[in-house]
Design a protein that fits this description.
Elements (H helix, E strand, L loop, with lengths): L2 H12 L3 E7 L5 H14 L4 E4 L10 H12 L4 H12 L7 E5 L1 H7 L1 H11 L3 E4 L8 H9 L3 E6 L5 H10 L4 E4 L12 H12 L6 E4 L5 H8 L4 E4 L1 H8 L6 H23 L7
Parallel strand pairs: 1-2, 1-8, 2-3, 3-4, 4-5, 5-6, 6-7, 7-8
Helix pairs in contact: 2-4, 2-12, 4-6, 5-6, 10-12, 11-12
């Protein structure tokens, strides 16, 4: 069984929801990435999205753009990101890692070569922002050949046809973008998300995670009551960039542990998860 699926099944049995934090590989320095990954796990992360730095991250707001710029200034490449995942795997073979990024570095490496290298490094899933489902069929097939989950995005503006296309290709989970715009750009409209998630669930048995606009334990708890996973990125990046290197792990742990507690309290009140595969 794929590790991501196993995580959701375990959480379903426990009546809990997945916490999926995001950081950018190499930000603020490659030497800090693996310690930060372990910190996220200790704070309660179930799955981790690891950003591949890119010079033109079109879906990302200023906070994550700055993280990419800091990593690129350190010379962090896709190959180095895979090396960091392999280093993380020395001490953690269980926490799923999803690479999140853009098509250009993957195309430069070659899709098949990338999938093989990602598998060897210990990657479990891949989310490529600019691979829409219409253009992602072959990519998803190649990932599946290596046991990797293709993760796709849906948005408030996604049509029924787009939802069905994503449902046909995605595995692991579907990432629902909770708002129109880029990461970190607006506050979360929980009611709008709550109205949209059931429509997606009618077309897929894949868990649905919600990201964009989640900044604290209260919003994370609200999302945990209606979705299968909470994805949080910009707020973590802010904590990293506002701290010194020797305090980054401490501050990230405090933030994420608080979010984990909020999520668990919410799902305890709710009485379990709504996801059925």
């Amino acid at each position: 069984m794929a590790k991501i699926q196993a995580v959701f099944e375990r959480l379903q049995a426990q009546g809990r929801k997945a916490l999926i934090p995001f950081i950018t590989a190499g930000d603020p320095d490659p030497a800090l990435t693996v310690p930060l990954l372990h910190t996220l796990v200790r704070a309660g992360a179930d799955i981790i999205e690891l950003g591949v730095p890119f010079s033109d991250p079109m879906a990302d707001g200023p906070t994550i753009q700055r993280a990419s710029e800091r990593a690129l200034a350190k010379g962090v490449s896709l190959r180095q990101v895979l090396e960091l995942v392999a280093s993380f795997r020395i001490d953690d073979q269980h926490t799923p890692i999803v690479l999140m990024g853009y098509a250009n570095p993957i195309e430069a490496m070659g899709v098949d070569a990338f999938a093989a290298a990602a598998d060897r490094s210990g990657v479990d899933g891949v989310l490529v922002v600019d691979y829409p489902p219409e253009e992602g069929i072959e990519f998803a097939q190649i990932l599946h050949q290596y046991g990797l989950d293709p993760i796709f995005l849906l948005a408030p503006t996604s049509s029924d046809q787009r939802i069905s296309q994503v449902a046909a290709l995605a595995s692991g989970y579907i990432y629902y973008v909770s708002l129109k715009g880029v990461t970190g750009s607006a506050s979360l409209d929980v009611a709008a998300v709550a109205a949209r998630i059931p429509e997606i669930r009618t077309r897929t048995g894949v868990p649905v995670g919600v990201g964009f606009g989640i900044r604290d334990a209260a919003t994370a708890a609200a999302v945990a009551e209606i979705a299968d996973a909470v994805v949080i990125g910009s707020r973590i990046i802010e904590e990293i960039e506002q701290s010194s290197a020797d305090q980054a792990c401490t501050r990230v742990f405090a933030l994420l542990a608080d979010i984990r507690r909020g999520m668990d309290a919410a799902t305890n009140r709710q009485g379990g998860t709504t996801w059925v595969r």
